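Sample entry (388 residues):
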Amino acid sequence: MAVEAKDTPATGRILIRNIGLLLTGDLDAPIADSDSLMIQDGVIAGFDAGDADQVIDAQGCAVAPGLIDGHCHPVFGDWTPRQNQLGWIEMNVNGGVTSFISAGEVHLPGRPKDAEGVKALAMVAQRCFQNFRPLGAKVIAGAPVAELDFGRDFFEALKTAGIRHIGEIGLGTVAKGPDAARVTAWCRDLGIETIMHCGGPSIAGSHHVTAADILQAQPDVISHINGGPTANPLEDIALLCREASGALEVVHNGNEKAALVALEAAQQADRLADFLIGTDAPAGSGVQPNGMVRMVTLMASLGGLASELAWCCASGNVARKRGLTQGLVAPGRPADLVFMDRPGGSDGGDVLGAMAMGNIPGIGAVMIDGKMRCGRSRSTPPAARVPA
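Predicted structure, serialized as C-alpha cells:
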C-alpha cells in the first residue's frame, strides 16, 4: 500500500506583484503600504519586489491573510457525519478559509465518553489531520470533551500526549460553573487551552451554559458568545464582554442579532482585539463554505466595523489568541493568502466597499504555504479581478 506524502510548503522564491490592496490581519496596521509580497519557501519574506523563481500578477485585486475558522467540528477526513457530506473542508478553502480549529470531534457516531476512549479519539483526530490536509487546509484537531468523572490525571495525560486544547466545556457532563472552574484551573496550570460553550443546548447531551457559569470558570475562549445556536439574554452577552477574561467568539451558526450586540459591547469595552469569528460548522443548519466571509461581511455592513478590521477578527485576532503563526501578513509568517476583489455587479468601488455594502467578496485564488490551492472560487460569486 502506498504511503501518502505529507503536504509540504512551496520551495523557491515567489513574487506577488500588482497588488491593489494588501490586508495584514493586524488590527494596529490592517492595510500595508505595498503592492508587492515576496515569499521564500512558503514563508513571507518581505514587501519588496526582487528576483524570483515565479511571479504572480495580482492584477489589482486585494491580497489578505487566509481566514481561520476558530470554531468547527471535524471528525475524520473531509467528511461530516452531522450532514453526511463529503468535501466540506475543501469547499471552505474555496470560501477563503486556510486553517480550522476543532472545538471537539463530537459528531462521531457512538463517540466514546470514557477517559481512555476520549483521549484516544483526540489523539487519532490530531494525528490524522497532521498528515491529511484537504486542499492544503491546516486542521488543528484533537479537542477532547471533559466529563465529570475525569480527574486531573486525565488532563495531565492529554498534556503528555501533545493535546493543545480541549473541546467545548458544556458539550459533555462538565457544564456548570463549579465543575467548569475546576477543569479550567487544571488546564491553566498545565498549559492546555480551554474553550467553553455559551448559550442553550446545541446537540443531545449538551447543556445550557449561562453567563454566570462562564464568569465562574473564566475559560480562555468563550465559544459562540452569540449562541450555538441559541443565545443567552442580550444583556448577559454584554456583561460577558465587560467582565469575562477570555476571548469573545461569534459564529455563523449562532444568533446574528446577538453577534452584533457582542461586537458593539466588545468595542465599548475596548476589546476588539479579543473579538474572534468562527462558524460552528458542521451543524444542524448545515455546512456553509462562505460562512466566514459572510460573518466578516455582517460585521462590516450591519455592524459598522471597517471592513479591514472585520477581516482581522477572522484572521490575525484568531492567530494571536489561539497561538498560531498563520493569519497575519508579515515576514516570517506562512504564506496563507486569499486573492479577492469585489464581486461582479457590486457597488462599493473595491472589495472593502463591497463588504461595507453587505456583499461578500469574490475570491480569485487561495494560497497555503506558498502553493496555489484553488483558482477562482467554486463557492463565492465571481471576483471582478483574479491573479494571473
